[in-house]
Every structure is written in C-alpha cells, then in structure tokens.
Amino acid sequence: MESLLCGHSLCDAMLYIPEDKVIFMGDLLFVDCHPTFFEESNPQKWIHILKEVERMDIDIAIPGHGSVGTKINFLQVIDYIHNLTTIAQKNNEIETIPLPNDYKNWPSPQIYHQNVKTLKELLHC
C-alpha cells in the first residue's frame, strides 16, 4: 500500500472495506468540488493512485470533501488534474484564465486559480 501514498499530501490515507465494497478516500477524492494542491502534492502520483483504486471492487467512495461518490468521481478528479496541468503549462497569466464550464457550479471557485498557480510551481513552468 506504500505505493498508494503521497499523491494529494504526505499524509494520504484510505480505508477499504471489501465485503461492503466501500472505500474511504480522505483527501485523495473530492466530489463535485475543487481538489486542493499543496507544495507536497504529486499530481502524477495522485492520478496513479486513483487509477489503481478504480480497479478495485468498489460501489461507494467516501471522499474527503463533497458528497458520497462512486468510481466515476475518480475519473473526474483525474480529468481535473490533467486539465489543470495543461492549463498551467500553457498559461502565464493565471488570473485571466476563465473558470471552465465543468467547474462553474463547484463551490469556492477561487481554489481553481490557486491550484493552477500551485501546479505551475510544482511543474516548474
């Protein structure tokens, strides 16, 4: 399980209950809200973790933030990380980047721009 650590932060943790097909994801999963990136976040490892967990026999995923989710929400976070990575690599003026329609209904839209800024720093763009 050590390979499934340190995607979102250094203290990532999960609890899987196979007989109930439930996983408690902590801050590795955000449902219908902006994931947060920190200087210790590792976007590529985070994606790897979510892809590994997605292969497990799971019906219910309890996120660190947002409502109860499913495997579909793993893909949403993966897409979010991919999208923000691309935006961070292509743009220098973060404040002028419009919030994509996919995320307009999510709470705390200011987190989006902070995430792009943090990703630029993590990726050294």
Automatic annotation (TrEMBL):
Transmembrane segments: none
A Pfam family annotated for this UniProt entry: Lactamase_B
Top-rank taxon, per record: Bacteria
InterPro entries hit by this protein: Metallo-B-lactamas, RibonucZ/Hydroxyglut_hydro
Metallo-beta-lactamase domain sequence ranges: 7-65
Protein name: MBL fold metallo-hydrolase
Lineage of producing organism: Bacteria, Bacillati, Bacillota, Bacilli, Bacillales
